[in-house]
Specification:
- 37% of the residues lie in helices and 18% in strands.
- With 260 residues, it is an alpha/beta fold.
- Helix 5 crosses helix 6.
- The two termini are 21 Å apart.
- The mean pLDDT is 94.
Length: 260
């Protein structure tokens, strides 16, 4: 029996709908053994984030070493990295441990609007971590912030994708959840574009969509799928997780990670 393994480097969500809790649920749902590195502790529920405690960078480094030196990982994904020092630490450890299948979800703002990445860390994210990423998975507002490109049309999104790959990323998926009409994701691998459409589902239960999607994508890469197959399967997984979500709080409830 082959056991595939994935590591999430992300913040903790006390409401368990996003962050490393969402990642671990996704790994389990897809049959991948999950490990975790905590970059921050958030006091959070379906209404939003009320407090954040960032993990000291040496503790982040020690967690990564502990996992990689014993258990290892077939793929790694990053979520909330909080500040520039943590980003630099993660980048150094990715190089040290020879991690190739790296999914970078550039988490900047929580669903409720709370900032999850310090403004001065965005440049560090672009310069230090993107060149190590097999794929970057921004939503539309994140792609706009990263590139300075405005607009929501296909032409603008393709320009955002080109610029992010131009920052050194192997590929990028600009997610379509914030677009009008269908929720169509656009993959760019540095040569070709590919679209992954899905009907828009009208629901408030969308907490943790970005975390869940990037975790599912990491699972696909961990299982030796091609990038195109991993993106397609992650898109199918998150679409059904949204469709089958249920309310557990009075705000934006999480998606259903165990819909299968």
């Amino acid at each position: 029996m082959t056991i595939y393994k994935a590591l999430t480097i992300a913040g903790s969500d006390s409401g368990a709908g996003a962050g490393l809790q969402a990642d671990l649920k996704t790994f389990a749902a897809l049959g991948v053994y999950g490990t975790s590195v905590v970059t921050a502790i958030t006091a959070q529920n379906t209404h939003g984030v009320t407090r954040v405690l960032e993990t000291p960078a040496p503790v982040v480094a020690a967690q990564i070493d502990a996992v990689m030196e014993d258990i290892g990982a077939d793929a790694v994904k990053t979520g909330m990295l909080a500040n520039a020092r943590i980003i630099r630490t993660v980048a150094d450890k990715v190089r040290q441990h020879g991690i190739q299948r790296l999914v970078v979800d550039p988490v900047m703002v929580a669903k409720g609007g709370h900032a999850l990445l310090r403004p001065d860390a965005i440049r560090t994210l672009r310069i230090r971590l993107f060149p190590l990423a097999a794929v970057v998975t921004p939503n539309l507002p994140e792609a706009q912030a990263l590139t300075g490109v405005e607009g929501t049309g296909v032409r603008a999104i393709k320009e955002m994708a080109r610029r992010i790959v131009g920052m050194g990323a192997g590929s990028v998926v600009v997610k379509g959840g914030h677009r009008k009409g269908d929720a169509t994701d656009i993959l760019y691998d540095g040569a070709d574009f590919q679209e992954y459409p899905a009907p828009r589902i009208r629901t408030r239960n969308t907490h943790g969509t970005g975390c869940t999607y990037s975790a599912a994508l990491a699972c696909g890469l961990a299982c030796n799928n091609t990038l195109e197959t991993a993106v397609a399967e992650a898109k199918e997984f998150i679409t059904e997780a949204i469709r089958r979500a249920y309310s557990i709080g009075a705000g934006h409830s999480p998606v259903n990670h165990f819909h299968k």
